């Protein structure tokens, strides 16, 4: 799966978690911080993890809630798991 | 200041241990020592006798005890007045009253003559002991939508606050830090802008002299201060209901994901409510903050192994709060609103069991 495709699916997942952030999520970049810039709290991040697992059919093993700082780091992890 | 039994010089700050406490004064000559009261001043104060600034000879001042002179270090010498000024300011205050054992004693008097500032190591010690008292104080505040973030102390925190591209996050970060300022003032009386704050590699802020933890969510912030390690988490119940109440399977998945094996064993088959989930979640997050600041892996946090309290408060019923730490049985809660801080009564604290009602 191409990186752009992963990002697009990730955006859909984030939108499902908080529809009030539509504009921010649609225009987000890989460097943006999930908590600082996109404003997700830890419950929302946990849900994002579950959604990613189901959507990409991968498993986050032994991963901490705050292990991912930016959107790009999540994409890296997914890419790594898909290979 | 160090103390040494050297020859005394005019303008010296001197002390003698009378009974269990030191008596301080300003030395002018063997026949003129100016001090706040005759020793033992503390007994006179306890007996409620009027204590005034007096001039005595050295023998009356020392009451048979050994006299030492204060030897200033470099920084103190630079701040100190000249001996002439010290003597003049001491003489000007002869006859003055208003003695207080803790807040205006003979040590304050001598320091004021020498440095022009009221200061007492004995009071500082008492304050320090008071500040180390066992406590677990949770402060809560609402975050108004129109709150405008301002600069805060220390500068690193200020930069971090404005660094975020998200206005809601900036507002929450500012609100929680201002709340910490109120908590520190109320609990310890420290000057916030003189505290020594540090930020660890894993992003946790600490300060010298006390423990604290911060949490913010959409609409409210919470801070806990304690003499021992502590953690706090606050969540917006209505907001989570908005996302999960309509899809029980979402909640079920979240719940499964955060439970330890032991917790899952004890769980009956019924579908969890948003409140069931938030109770477990806030407990885990507060425990993680109090006991392990490195990584938060919820399904590895066994909530029954730690002291933790979960509650709502009547004035802000839409928020669920958990506080964890060894001192959490001493929980007291404060609401900060419009710049005022009010202690929440026991009747206004709703336990977790009722929180879902």
Characteristics:
heterodimer; A: 83 residues; mainly alpha; Non-ribosomal Peptide Synthetase Peptidyl Carrier Protein, Chain A; 4 helices; B: 357 residues; alpha+beta; endopeptidase fold (from Nostoc punctiforme); Ribosomal Protein L22, Chain A; 2 domains; six-stranded antiparallel β-sheet; five-stranded mixed β-sheet; 13 helices; 17 strands; 27% strand; elongated
What does this structure look like?
- The complex is a heterodimer of chains A (83) and B (357).
- By secondary structure, chain A is mainly α.
- Chain A has a single domain (3-82), classed as Non-ribosomal Peptide Synthetase Peptidyl Carrier Protein, Chain A, CATH 1.10.1200.
- Chain A contains four helices and no strands.
- Chain A is globular and about 30 Å long.
- The mean pLDDT of chain A is 87.
- By secondary structure, chain B is α+β, with helices and mostly antiparallel strands.
- Chain B folds into two domains: 2-129, endopeptidase fold (from Nostoc punctiforme); 132-355, Alpha-Beta Complex (Ribosomal Protein L22, Chain A), CATH 3.90.470.
- Chain B has helices spanning 41-46, 58-62, 74-79, 83-92, 106-115, 121-131, 155-163, 167-188, 237-244, 248-258, 261-266, 274-291, 352-355, and strands spanning 2-4, 12-18, 21-29, 32-36, 53-56, 67-71, 136-142, 197-199, 205-207, 211-217, 220-226, 230-236, 308-313, 316-325, 331-337, 340-343, 349-351.
- The longest helix of chain B is centred in the middle third of the chain and has 22 residues, at 167-188.
- The mean pLDDT of chain B is 89.
- Classes of the chains: A mainly alpha (83), B alpha+beta (357).
